[in-house]
TrEMBL record:
Cofactor requirements of the protein: pyridoxal 5'-phosphate
Keyword Transferase: yes
Protein name as catalogued: Putrescine aminotransferase
Native species: Geopseudomonas sagittaria
Pfam families: Aminotran_3
Protein family membership: Belongs to the class-III pyridoxal-phosphate-dependent aminotransferase family.
Gene3D superfamilies hit by this protein: Aspartate Aminotransferase, domain 1 (3.90.1150.10), Type I PLP-dependent aspartate aminotransferase-like (Major domain) (3.40.640.10)
Keyword ATP-binding found: no
Sample GO molecular function, one term: pyridoxal phosphate binding
PROSITE patterns: AA_TRANSFER_CLASS_3
Keywords in alphabetical order: Aminotransferase, Pyridoxal phosphate, Transferase
Listed InterPro entries: Aminotrans_3, Aminotrans_3_PPA_site, PyrdxlP-dep_Trfase, PyrdxlP-dep_Trfase_major, PyrdxlP-dep_Trfase_small
Length: 452
């Protein structure tokens, strides 16, 4: 147990010693972090005793909800049995092998192998090294370029941030690294101009073909994309996008990487977002929902032909101390057991996602909401000054809205002026009602602040 301190004491101690991720240290130091102390189900409690509905499932990861004793027990048992061993140099252990087999059972057909990592970022570093290695084994070492998308997110390591298309991240430290190209994103609400969704989806997909031809098929290793962009603002492509991308991928010899770090493990109502859209990726980076965030773990699921090629390539000089960590693997196995036995993914598809989407749409009548969109257990609200022109508020209002959410007991994330949710998959219809009415209350409070 950590020591009991007051909120102010924790904030001061954090200010003195803790460098938090994605934070403006001066601003955070002045304001003080909100200290979260415990959680159960879909709720968090802060150090002041406030109960907060976690509309983001942590960082899109706590799929089975907080407080599942079975996951703690699995970790405890495994720590006593074998707390650590590695998979390097011709050793293995039961939890990693069992987990790889369990993932192969739920993965799309023909994707029977997994490389384990410690996180989603490490999964995408693995992707970068693996696809280049793959083409070298095939005798085509010039195929090195990976095409990603502007405003895509693939992690925060050098490769992850380079594959991603976040301008602010690229601006710090000369990213992306060479050999990575970015194309437009299928963000209809934000970037379509006068195009209707169908035409815009096809246009955005055609950007892939344009880029392949520009770089030269002989130089392109892979295309990487999230089925639905998460961190970019829950960007759900128009219906025409993925079918057209599939046609393009069928024409060229390049690998397709579907980053399932957010969409994987049930978020869309299917086990993987690729299945929702009928995609057939060659590689699927995973993390987050793999362990429901209870312990760090990621991986890359690979299609059989990729695994077969790797088997012909001699040693793959790549891996992490914690690849397939036995305690993480034991927790992931138990998490997958819970998801399967409690039919959580099926319930999302049949009951709770349709209900969330129905209720979420009701928010589109709010004066601040230019668009309410969602899919599965994902939702987004575009906050605008003018619904007709989609003009935004000067200076932005997303962070102000987020403050009202915190104050009213709801966590919604702000991506610029797009408010997003991604609740635990176990959220009940009653809790969805609560989420939607809290969201409306926070929108009202934001509108009142703007008037005042
Ligand atoms: N890919 C996607 C699609 C993600 O959303 C994230 C994390 N938000 C990552 C990769 C990186 O994962 P991690 O933070 O575990 O390194």
């Amino acid at each position: 147990m950590t020591q009991q301190r007051s909120t102010a004491e924790w904030q001061a101690l954090g200010r003195e010693h803790l460098l938090a991720p994605f934070s403006d240290y001066k601003q955070l130091g002045a304001k003080g972090a909100r200290i979260v102390t415990k959680a159960s189900g879909v709720y968090l409690w802060d150090s002041e005793g406030h109960k907060i509905l976690d509309g983001m499932a942590g960082l899109w990861c706590v799929n089975v909800g907080y407080g599942r004793r079975e996951l703690a027990d699995a970790a405890h048992r495994q720590m006593l049995e074998l707390p650590y061993y590695n998979l390097f140099f011709q050793t293995a252990h039961p939890p990693a092998i069992e987990l790889a087999a369990a993932i192969a059972e739920i993965a799309p057909p023909g994707m029977q192998h997994v490389f384990f990592t410690g996180s989603g970022s490490e999964a995408n570093d693995t992707v970068l090294r693996l696809v280049r290695h793959y083409w070298a084994i095939k005798g085509m070492p010039s195929k090195k370029v990976i095409i990603g998308r502007i405003n895509g997110y693939h992690g925060s390591t050098v490769a992850g941030a380079s594959l991603g298309g976040m301008a602010a991240m690229h601006a710090q430290g000369d990213l992306p690294i060479p050999g990575i190209e970015h194309i437009a994103q299928p963000y209809w609400y934000g970037e379509s101009g006068a195009m209707d969704p169908h035409a815009f989806g096809e246009w955005a997909a055609n950007e892939l073909e344009k880029k392949i031809l520009e770089v030269g098929e002989d130089n392109v290793a892979a295309f990487i994309a999230e089925p639905i962009q998460g961190a970019g603002g829950v960007i759900i492509p128009p219906d025409s996008y993925w079918p057209r991308v599939r046609q393009i991928l069928a024409k060229y010899a390049i690998l397709f990487v579907a980053d399932e770090v957010i969409c994987g493990f049930g978020r869309t109502g299917e086990w993987f977002g690729s299945q929702y859209y009928g995609l057939e990726p060659d590689l699927m980076p995973i993390a987050k929902g793999l362990t429901s965030g209870y312990i760090p773990m990621g991986g890359v699921i690979v299609r059989d032909h990729v695994a077969q090629t790797l088997a012909e390539g001699g040693e793959f000089y790549h891996g992490y101390t914690y690849s397939g960590h036995p305690v993480a693997a034991a927790v992931a196995l138990e998490n997958i057991r819970i998801l399967r036995e409690e039919k959580i993914v099926e319930r999302v598809k049949q009951e709770t996602a349709p209900y969330l989407q129905k209720r979420w749409q009701e928010l589109s009548d709010h004066p601040l909401v230019g668009e309410a969109r969602g899919l599965g257990m994902l939702g987004a609200l575009e906050l605008v000054r003018d619904k007709k022109t989609r003009a935004r508020f000067e200076g932005g209002i997303g962070m102000r809205c987020r403050e009202h959410c915190f104050r009213n007991g709801l966590i919604m994330r702000a991506v610029g002026d797009t408010m997003i949710v991604s609740p635990p998959l176990v959220i009940t219809p009653e809790q969805i009602d609560e989420l939607v009415s809290l969201a409306r209350k926070c929108l009202d409070a934001t509108a009142a602040e703007l008037r005042g």
